[in-house]
Each structure stands twice: as C-alpha cells, then as structure tokens.
Amino acid sequence: TSLETVITLCIGLKLPPILSYALINKAGFTLKNTETHLAYRFLLDACYSYSIFECNEILEAQNIPPLGYVE
Question: Between 52-61 and 3-12, two packed helices, what is the crossing angle to 10 degrees?
C-alpha cells in the first residue's frame, strides 16, 4: 500500500478531512511539506466532496501525477 493509494481511497470515499488524516496515520504515512503533499492536503481539506476525476484535474494542472489508475 502506498500513500497515493490511501489518498485515492479517502477521496473516492469522500471522507471528511479528520477521517482522512486518521486513515493516513493508521496506514503509517505522514504528509510532508513537499509540493505534491501540499496538493494532497488541499484536496483532502477543500475538495473531499469532489470526484476523483475532478481532483485529478487539479493535480494535473499543477503537473502532479493523477491518483488512481489512469488509461
């Protein structure tokens, strides 16, 4: 399991931020202050009700690889 998998799961389930961060911590991960992790924080805090497709558009606009499986 990777951090990206956990983030994808949180967004896919539309978990509120407090539950997302709890799941990330329980999975043994922490978000750092990198550009990618800051983008993940933004999605978890402000876009958790968005679809994975909408979140991936936000990531791709920042030149960050999309979450989940992309054909």
Answer: 130
Q: What does the H/E/C string look like for 1-66?
A: CCHHHHHHHHHHCCCCHHHHHHHHHHCCCCCCCCHHHHHHHHHHHHCCCCCHHHHHHHHHHCCCCC
pTM summary value: 0.92
Residue in this structure with the two tokens 């497709």, named with its chain if needed: 53
> Structure tokens of 54?
């909408």
Neighbours of 22 (CB within 10 A): 12
Mean pLDDT of the chain: 95
* pLDDT tens-place string over residues 19-42: 999 999 999 999 999 999 999 999
**For residues 19 and 21, what is the distance between their CA atoms, to the nearest angstrom?**
5
